[in-house]
Amino acid sequence: MSISPEDAEFTKEILPGLLDEIFPSKINNNTQLYRHIINNEQLNSLPLAVNKNIHFRMLSLVDDGIGNLYRGIKGRGWKLEKLDEFKEEPLVYILYSTSDSLDEDTEINAFISLQFSDLILGDPSLGKVVYLFEIHLSSELQNQSLGTRFLLGIDKLSVSPTLKAHNCKGVELTVFIQNQRAFNWYRKNGYALASDSPPNEEYVILFKQTHSVT
Ligand SMILES: CC(C)(COP(=O)(O)OP(=O)(O)OC[C@H]1O[C@@H](n2cnc3c(N)ncnc32)[C@H](O)[C@@H]1OP(=O)(O)O)[C@@H](O)C(=O)NCCC(=O)NCCS
């Protein structure tokens, strides 16, 4: 995916401050969870052992949730590809952990990654979107409405005055067709097939309009 230098900068510098006001700094879902908001560059510049641990923990969450789909679709190299994405892609991460600091043994219990960009395939003049790269919860945290709460937070971000002023039209994401559960869950939460979602692919692009597209 290509992103303009302006959107990359906006993602790394502006989104974290907006997320700070929306995503709770602590969540008590039987266990106490602490929030960490960090962009990919900050993550990369943590001490190596910490950075490696966080990347490893995020990768493990992806693997536990939908690793079988990634292996089937992208082959055995999917983890290296995902690690490269963690490192290179301009993203802001919202991590939830039982630990209030990011250390070399911190567990990551849930994470979301976001980017501010053009509508993924549509005409860029149509506006901007919050692009939801990843949302993963550990199996212990699933089915307790936490994911829905996070999606509502992302909606709220997309209608914030700052994003409205930057012509944000909604939230976009990609989901594997085989990930029926997530697909149905997104549909239930107001996402629809984007008009330009490519046919005959392993994935679809879903869009939720939060501002009118002119
Ligand atoms: C997809 C995912 C993010 C959803 O988050 P979640 O917190 O589990 O979702 P919610 O609890 O808000 O809703 C999930 C379901 O639980 C149900 N639910 C929510 N709270 C519940 C409760 N207290 N008791 C029983 N059911 C409940 C919801 O109605 C919903 O039902 P549905 O699946 O039939 O739609 C999460 O399950 C996950 O991380 N999955 C693996 C990774 C993945 O697929 N990520 C998406 C990649 S694109």
Automatic annotation (TrEMBL):
Keywords: Acyltransferase, Cytoplasm, Nucleus, Transferase. The keyword Magnesium does not apply. It is found in: Cytoplasm; Nucleus. The keyword Acyltransferase applies. GO terms for cellular component: cytoplasm; nucleus. SUPFAM superfamilies: Acyl-CoA N-acyltransferases (Nat). It comes from the Eukaryota. InterPro entries: Acyl_CoA_acyltransferase, NAA40. GO terms for molecular function: histone H2A acetyltransferase activity; histone H4 acetyltransferase activity; protein N-terminal-serine acetyltransferase activity. PANTHER family: N-ALPHA-ACETYLTRANSFERASE 40. This is Uncharacterized protein. It comes from Saccharomycopsis crataegensis.
